[in-house]
Design a protein that fits this description.
Blueprint lengths: L1 H22 L5 H8 L1 H6 L6 H8 L6 H9 L4 E3 L5 E6 L5 E5 L6 E6 L3 E3 L4 H15 L5 H13 L5 H11 L3 H18 L3 H9 L7 H7 L5 E6 L8 E5 L8 H10 L9 H10 L1 E2 L2 E2 L2 E2 L6 H13 L9 H9 L2 E6 L3 H51 L6 H18 L3 H26 L8 H23 L15 E3 L5 E3 H23 L1 H11 L1 H6 L4 H24 L10 H14 L4 H21 L4 H18 L10 H4 L1
Antiparallel strand pairs: 1-2, 1-5, 2-3, 3-4, 6-11, 7-11, 8-9, 9-10, 12-13
Length: 655
Amino acid sequence: MLRPFRLLLAGLLVCLATASAIAQPAPTPIEELLLQNSELIDKSSRRTIEPAIEALRDSDLPGAETVLTRWRDRELWRRKSDGRFFLVAPGADRDTYVLRHVVTDEELGTAGRRDVDQIKPNSGIQGLINSALVQFQLTNPDPAARRASLDAISRNPSADQLPILREALQEEAEPGIKATMTRLERLLTIRFDEDIATRVSAIESLAGDLSVEARATLNPLLSTTRKASREELEDANVARELSPGSDEFSYDAAYDFLVGENLAPKTINAAAKDAALTANIADGSVAGIPITTLNTREARDAAYVKLAADGAVSPALTEAERTALVDEFNFYDVYAENPAVTEAVLGTIGAINFRVHLNEFADLALDALSLASIYFLAAIGLAITFGVMGVINMAHGEFIMMGAYTGYVVQQFVPDRTLSIVVALPLAFIITFAAGVLLERLVIRWLYHRPLETLLATFGVSIALQQLAKNIFGTQARPLTAPGWLDGALVFNDVVAISYIRIAIFVLAVVFFLLLLFVLNRTRLGLEVRAVRQNPRMASSMGIDRERVNMLTFGLGSGIAGIAGVAIGLFAQVTSEIGQAYIVQSFMTVVVGGVGNVWGTLAGATLIGFLQKGIEWFNPSNTLAAQTYMIVFIIIFIQFRPRGIVALKGRAAEA
């Protein structure tokens, strides 16, 4: 009775197995390839996995890219029973997985959680897979994918990518991507191509390339190895010959190098000699010499020489012997590369360095122009008040500070950064204009033609305004955030760039320069200001209210300082001392340019900006020294041109 039951059960199992085989189709070609390399994939070793990755990459099978991507992303699983690879998804219960095809995602049945293992490539294998994916990504129809692939190659270049890149280059149609691809192909050719002529051609093609990548590719080709030889090196690519005893290569350094190359015995110092003597003491003596006599360095050295003669210790060379041994050798620094490659690299780097210096000069000029625009904005208000009224306003920096704090306060109520700046600029002008008028009415008007008292009074006002700002805003720096569209920089190449904030300040300076020219030359107020500046008494006799002109002029100069404060606050820390950083340069700008002249202020700001940047370029590590040199230069300058670059003429100059 039991036997028929067993036969029935066996038949059912055979039917189930047959049904399972029918339910799961035979492996596709891509699955067969995975099965053929299953042992390598299971090991997941960076040292042995490359054949499996290359087999998939070079198979030309549909879905190869998908499989590599899913392998890299740890989405592949392997069934233990037959070694087939699948994707898995949660099943009906937590102990079951749904098996899917590695390419098509077609459902292929289920398996228990313990019946499959996940393939987990480490970071090294993932890097190799990424390199293999380059072949597919370089021909991807999506331009963004091709650009991403080029970025990946540039970050992790290898020799096997070079033929793939060249093949893709022939098919690339988009000009921008093709230019990037061409340049990357040159860089890889320089590093990995075996043909010398091809490498030399690629090296020479980089003569106009200012990128960091180009220099990073070329500079390692000039690496050298130090060698020592008793004979002249005839076939080596010698970079330079070293002379022992020179400042860069002393005799000690030469001997140490020979020791490191096993061409000379190690140096035995005094401590080692004394230790050897101690180890060889026998019956109160060393090599027959009583230890009581070894109380000098010369005696101990002589005892060591005797020990060496007896073969008990290694012989020690004297200084003369060491020098003579060094003199037997010629020392060289030898290039690792072929002479033709080295010559091409030296020529190309020379051309690149020349262009780099030119572009560094252009970058320095842009920085100087940017700094000049800042100084112009900070000084133009002072030039107007000083030129028309003859007032030395030591509180001018505090009007800059008030403008910066106005911009900060506006941003607390107007979250939109662009709108807040649009609101802050006119508001800063209004507030500082009113503050300037108030200062002129309460203090300055009583001190005309008394320069010392005016200087002391405005200095006191400066201290008071700084303390008031500290009481209101505290001593901590406050942020004045620029709009998002001012983030970043305008990049011309890897050497020349200028931030968008600097460009915006330069544009603002140009706008105010043109606006001031219009006000001074095309408006009634400008006519009255020029009249008062040229001949105050005659202007009064012609019915011009000098007090009103002085008040409005001081207010105008203060208002412009407030606008300068908003601009400066966009890149500098807003504190109560922000204006003090520019007051000295503002006075220097006015004095050098010419008092009371807009064109003179522009010329003075340009000279100060370029001078400061030039001095900082020669001495970049010491900005205080740069400031000192600049002041000395200006003192010398005004000795020869006391009225400034653009001096006033006629009665205005005599006033």
